Amino acid sequence: MSESTKDLNEMLLMRREKLNQLIEKGKNPFLVEKFNNTHYSSDIQDNFEELEEKEVTVSGRIMSRRGHGKVSFIDLQDSKGRIQIFAKFNILGEETYNDLDLLDLGDIVGIKGEVFKTKMGEISIKANEITIMSKSLQILPEKFHGLKDQDLRYRQRYVDLIVNPEVKETFILRSKMLKAVREYLDERDFLEVETPILSTIAGGANARPFTTHHNALDLDMYMRIANELYLKRLIVGGFDKVYEMGRMFRNEGMSPKHNPEFTNIEIYEAYADYEDMMTLTEELIAHVAEKTLGTTKINYQGVDLDLTPPWKRIDMADAIKEFVGVDFSEINTDEEARAIAKAKGIEVKDEMTRGHIISEMFEEFCESHLIQPTFVTGHPVEVSPLSKRNPDDPRKTNRFEAFINTWEIANAFSELNDPIDQRQRFEDQVKQKESGDHEAHPMDTDFINAIEVGLPPTGGLGIGIDRMIIILTNQPSIRDVLLFPTMKPIES
Q: Cα–Cα–Cα angle for 269, 274, 279, nearest 5°?
C-alpha cells in the first residue's frame, strides 16, 4: 500500500470515528429528518440591510473551516451560494462548540443565528445553534484545485456540482432553456403530448435502435429512435399542432456531440410546410437565446455566431458546387455519380444512387463550412423516406437541415402524405436493410394505414436540444450539458 493510499484510508477511518463519537453523544446526524430554513445564502447577502441583527436559519454543506481557540469560521454552501458562519465558544456553549471538532468538510449542518457584518466587512451569520444533519464519509476534492479529472467529473456529477459551482449554473441555464422552448410553442397553441418510448417498430429515423424484451408478451421491443410517426398519427387524428420533447435512444457511437440517449423535440403543424418550419426553427432558437442569454449574438469556443433571423439558405447541390466544384445538375446517372465520388476519395458501394452520392459528398466536404446558422435544402429522396417530393424536381424533397457551428441542429420537411409513395419508399428502405444497412427504415404498415385514412399537408421539425444547449452554453461536449452522460463502467 502506498503512503498516499494509507493516508487516505486513515482519513476515511477518522471520519467514521467522528461519526461514532457523535452517535455515542446521542447526536446521530442521520436521525435528523427535517430542518426548517428561513433563508438562502443569497437572500441574506442581497437583503443585508433588512436582515441585519435579525435571526435566520440556513442549512448547507461545510466547504471550509478555519479559526483558532474559541472562535471558528465556517463557509457554508447551499443551493444558491455560500455564506460565512461565525461560531464562538461563549455563544454556543462548551458542548456545542466542542462538537465542531467532529465536523469535516462536506458535512451538512443547519445554522440558527443572527445576521451581521464582520470587521472585514463580510456578511455572516453569528451562530446560536448548530444542528449536524449528515456526516460526509468521503473526502471532497481539495478546494483550490477542485475536481479536474474530466472523466471523474462525469462519473461523479454529484461531487462535480458541489466543488465546481459553474457546472450547476450550466444546468440551471439548461432548465431555463427547456422552459423557453415550451413557452414559445405553448404561446402559439402547440399542444405538448407524450408518445411511447417502447415500440415494436423503431421508426421515424434512420438509426440503429436498442432492443429489449417484453416478458409477458414474449416480444422483442425497441426503445424509440424518434417519435415522428406517432406524432403524425396525432395529426391524422385531428390535432393540428403538437410537439413532444423527451429522450431518444440510438445504439450508436459516442462523441462530443453524440450520446446514446439524448433529448430531442419534434414539432408538427397541419396545413404548414417546410418553409414554415424554417421560420419556426430560426425564431424558436433566437427566442431561447434572447430569453436566457439576453442576446442572439453569442460566442461558441472562440467563434462569434449570430442567431438573429433570417438565417442563410443554400441548396445541397449548390453547396457541393461551391465547396467541391462538382455540378450535379450536369450529372444525371448513378454511374456518373459513383465515378465522381470515387475520384473524390469516397467509398462507393454498388447499390449507391446519384442521390446517395450527393448526400455523401455534402456530408464529407460541405458540412465543415457551415459555421453561421444555415438552412440546407434539396435533399435527395433516397435519404429522405418520410419527406414530400419537390414538385419541380422529384429527385429532391422539400426538406431542410439546419446547421450551426458545422453541426446539424435541426431536420425538417414537408411531410410525405401520399400513402402509395410512402409504401414504396418503405419497401426501398427494407431492401437497403436486407443488403446490410442496419440504419435503414423498417416497414410500418400501421403508419401506412394511418396516412391512408388521410394526413393533411403537414410541416414537421426535429431539433437536437442537447446540441442547441451545447452551443448556447458554450460547452465543449454533450457530456457537459447532460447531468449523467453514458459512461463505460470502470472495471474493478
A: 85
Q: Compute and round to an integer the Cα radius of gyration of the chain.
A: 29
Say if strands 303-306 and 219-223 run parallel, antiparallel, or are unpaired: unpaired
Find residue 461's DSSP bridge partners: 267, 412
**pLDDT in the model for residue 144:** 42
> Position of cell 467522528?
18
Length of the chain measured in residues: 492
This prediction's pTM: 0.91
Number of other residues whose CB lies within 10 A of the CB of residue 182: 15
Q: Edge-to-edge strand order for the sheet containing 241-249?
A: 191-192, 241-249, 261-270, 458-464, 407-414, 399-404, 374-377, 312-315
Strands 219-223 and 241-249: unpaired
408 is in an annotated binding site: yes
Map out the domains of the chain with their CATH numbers: 3-140 (2.40.50.140), 163-311+372-480 (3.30.930.10)
CA atoms within 13 A on the CB side of 255: 7
3-state SS assignment for residue 401:
strand
Say whether 190 sits in a helix, a strand or coil.
coil
Residue 341 grid coordinates: 465520388
The three-class DSSP label of residue 142 is coil
Instruction: Find the DSSP H helices in 249-397.
Output: 274-293, 316-323, 334-343, 354-365
**What is the DSSP secondary structure assignment for residue 455, as one 8-state letter?**
P
Residue 377 CB neighbours (<10 A) = 22
pLDDT in tens, 340-387: 999 999 999 988 999 999 999 999 999 999 999 999 999 999 999 889
- Residues in Cβ contact with 391 at an 8 Å cutoff, skipping those fewer than 6 apart: none
DSSP 96-145: HHHHGGG--TT-EEEEEEEEEE-TT--EEEEEEEEEEEE---S-PPPTTT
Contacts of 25 (CB under 8 A, 6+ apart): 99
- Per the CB < 8 A criterion, the answer to whether 167 and 137 are in contact is no
User: What is the separation, in whole angstroms, between the first and last Cα of the chain?
Assistant: 17
